[in-house]
Amino acid sequence: MASVASLSASVQQRVSAALAAAVPSAADADPLLRRSDRADFQANGVLGLAKKNKANPRELAAQVVAGLPTDELISEIEVSGPGFLNITVSDAAITDTLAARADDDRLGVPLTADPGTTVIDYAQPNVAKEMHVGHLRSSVIGDAIAKILEFEGETVVRRHHIGDWGTQFGMLIQYLIEHPHELDHSPADTDGEASMSRLNRTYKAARTLFDADEAFKDRSRKRVVDLQAGEPETLALWQRFVDESKIYFYSVYNKLDIAIQDDDIVGESAYNDMLVETCRILEDTGVAVRSNGALCVFFDEIKGKDGEPVPLIVQKADGGFGYAATDLSAIRDRTGNLKADTLLYVVDARQALHFRMVFETARRAGWLTEEVTVKHLPFGTVLGKDGKPFKTREGETVRLVDLLDEAVERATVVVREKNEELSDEEVAERGAEVGIGAVKYADLSTSLGRDYVFDLDRMVSLTGDTSVYIQYAFARTQSILRKAGAARAVARPELPLAPAERALGLLLDEFGDALAGVAETYEPHKLASYLYAVSSAFATFYEQCPVLKPETPEDVRENRLFLCTLTGRTLRQGMTLLGIHTPDQL
Ligand code: ARG
Predict the structure, then answer these.
(1) Which segments of 392-455 does DSSP mark as H helices, in order?
(2) Would residue 385 be called left, alpha or beta, if left means φ above 0 and alpha means ψ between -120 and 50 degrees?
(3) What is the pLDDT of residues 501-557, one digit of tens each?
(4) 126 lines ligand 1 (CB under 6 A)
(5) CATH superfamily for domain 400-578
(6) Which tens digits make up the pLDDT trace of 407-434?
(7) How far is the CA of 377 from the centre of ligand 1 (A)?
């Protein structure tokens, strides 16, 4: 394993040194290096530095250039505009750097210098309830972030904070006591859809009875008390609802091609034993106070529409604990027991206020210290084509499985049209990889906070910023390599590069930088747009730089095959980190 410094990092280092030589007080001035259309890179840092030192920017830039002789890395450097530096790297440096990447399993991507432990809270559906598009976003985004952080060398602890606790379980359990065969099925029946329909039926029946029958309502309320007290028979019945739901969750995650481990499902119920203590500490330390019987935390800056302060309620007046008490206990567990130094929450933007109040409370209580980074990564809403939150024609929330099935169906049509020789089995497999990939990519390529329209026609399109486009670029690299037969892929640093080869090469070199950017800001869309850029650059390369044509000289062919190989590896690795398959053939 050998990490490779990117060309941009190497150039940055040279320019920094030259800046420091020109202005000794600027030892750590940022040269502000960017990729540029005019040359390969542009450094804008001279301007600010000149201003600070009351120097003429163009003169200072010229001085920096004088201190930067062209060498095997930098082939050309010139001052432009008010004092920018335009920098071109040599073709040999590009090919050499890419060859070093190709030699490494990790494509030369370094591990983070200073890894820590990140607990990421994502993919948190609710027991006895259908999964909807909101759960899609949390799962897809969380899975990608977890994979990218792990690839960077961070220790990642996954937590699926499922909704498996609360007063509604009193009603469900009581109903099951009075209708004991409601959830029965043969042990061989592991069909997730069947599980969900049993749960749905039970939920609806219990709800109807609860609303109509006062005596049942009473028995249900008593059942909540038994559940919270851990009464064994009640707990055993509660467990049946959890187990039944897990069959369903696993079937959906399987379809979504997201691996969920049982040990990482640590739902709300897991913190039950901590709730009393959490509240006691908050009350003893004065962080929370009693207000009309409820235990509340107040915030100066958080007020409702009427101007009255909106408190975080940790315990209700009737003694019941809510969502906030559980989240506070989970923070105690994650920082205290799991020793996390970063806590991430991939949760709907509508819960932003909840998390703001929970984090602030945990800070006051000392459960979150300066050393711990905590972030709610809020995501926007999935919209229908009408621009309103995605609903069925009947106005109900859309079932996630229905969406996924439809995506796979559409993608299967595309796959079949594209390739008529495939067997039915291959079509089905690739249809799933393309369809699920399309849904994931549409989600991941939108920046987190933004809403997006769920438009399957666009998602499975072969053109535009879609996963299919990237999968297609990958498949094309593999098809060239297959057709190349005995021809070898060899990096040829002695060869000059065509513009399309340079453009592709410079992009391939940026893979590690793109990943580092995602790991720093938790924005997977940056990786998505990077992979799309690589795919577009590859399409141009494919058009302009024939690989296998007989007139292509052998050394040029070898170098082009090398670029195809590295493009394929980069796309596959990147897509894997987004949780998307890259079939060898499309
Ligand atoms: N189960 C919740 C929902 O479906 C999301 C849980 C988010 N995580 C948390 N720690 N509160 O809305």
Answers:
(1) 400-418, 424-444
(2) alpha
(3) 999 999 999 999 999 999 999 999 999 999 999 999 999 999 999 999 999 999 999
(4) yes
(5) Isoleucyl-tRNA Synthetase; Domain 1 (1.10.730.10)
(6) 999 999 999 998 888 899 999 999 999 9
(7) 12
